[in-house]
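Re: Re: token formats

Sure, here are both.
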Amino acid sequence: MKKTFESQLVEYLVDQYFAGDRADFADRSGYYRGQVDAWISGRTKPQKATMRWLMSSTIAPEFRVAAEFRPVDFDSASDISGVLRDVLGTHKTHSGVYAFYDSMCSVVYVGKASNGFLGEMYQQLKAPLGISFPKAVKGAPTRRWQVVRYVSAYEIPSVDHLDYPKHVESLVLRLSKPIGNKVLGSLQRSSPPKDHGKVRDR
């Protein structure tokens, strides 16, 4: 049976983005494994709307909540790692954007986790607070962990040709302007890959 363009495209998506795992592809796209097999073999042909959905659900990043307004209580800097592990659970090694809030749920800091939430959130909680208090205030907090009472974290997978977590972080920073962020971030365009192939004369 000759494969159609659609069957070849579905097979390409499965091979390139799911390492050939058709069951994983079916789970992500919301279809049955048997339906995916039928498309790839060419026995059935997906509709145009279905093809657009398959490409979108495969390539477009999907945001997922790792933790949202989860209360945290740090008695000391030594508590940070353990508390974060409890809050993040299985999401601690994933990439995305996170936020710290004070006791009034005002945003204190927004950051991007490229190499996993746990390590980067830990480092930023130990960082200087960056807020000046009047000299008359005794025992003022100096580190972020001392004022943070809630945390949120949202998984944002990377996409080809654009640091998508950083792109989202920049947008959030420009909208919210948290008191703990000194740089608002810049929105950048995605760029096409360089094609080093030579054009042959015909």
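Second one below.
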Amino acid sequence: MTMRTQAPPPARAAFQALGTTAVLLVTDPRALPAAETVLRAELAAVDLTCSRFRPDSELTRVNLSAGTPTAVTERFAEALQAALRAARLTAGAVDPTVGSAVIALGYDRTFVSLRPDDARPVPVGRPATGWKQIAFDAPTRRLRLPPHTRLDLGATAKALASDRAAQRAAAATGCGVLVSLGGDLATHGPTPRGGWRISLADDHAGPASGRGPTVAVTGGAMATSGVSVRTWRRAGRTLHHIVDPATGEPAAPVWRTVTVTAGTCVDANTASTAAIVLGDGAVDWLRSTALPARLVRLDGTVVRLGGWPPDAHPSDAGGSR
């Protein structure tokens, strides 16, 4: 008679960081402290490098030097190149030069500090400067932004932090690691039997209702972008944080959420954000990428692409949020 020992469930840690919830899962509970140390170090570094809310961040310094050549650190260069690659792959639908537009809409401070209902009028939207106007020499890390241009690296920088933290934590501990930063999820190392069970929801921080579909992630990364959670009102109008670079306005609300899986969290986030911006054009564009994707319209209608499986719920799949 043989007995099969069952592996312990993944150990979990969660805390607030980068204006969202950081979640860490590891396949070996003994590795949780070491993996959390790696994650916290990565988050501190990306915050100091790419936060547009910190006066001492490198991004703030770079934005203040717009119009003048400046040298950037290796970490900033990595984040910038990820953002420029996202802009190139999406033909500008995801563009790091939307910083001024985001600020004009009122998102000029951390989200929790925003006024939920601002009476000030909404400024007329202006197109972003455009990523092609950025002059960056990678070997010397010399950067020149066009005058009056502000970068916003938020989306791709957060996804890059998930990728980096998962890879570094797995290397440090030798076990499987999952890192999720507000919907930007990356995995590295061995996967639990049956995969990482992830419940999809509009709000990653909302209460687990048991009604959201569950997917098993067996490797790589997944990202969800949406327009229903990070919203605020201004002059009687509901605004959200994903800006269309072509108009400087919040992207037209066609999709409530878009979830994409890819080899890296940066690529998954790039595709999910682009889909929100592209609106009705997202389906054809995502088909051209061949990435698995799940899009939810405002009325709840679901579109699945690239082999995304039919929805399974926790009671069906045995998963948990």
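The two ends are 36 Å apart (CA to CA). The chain has one domain: 11-317.
- S.
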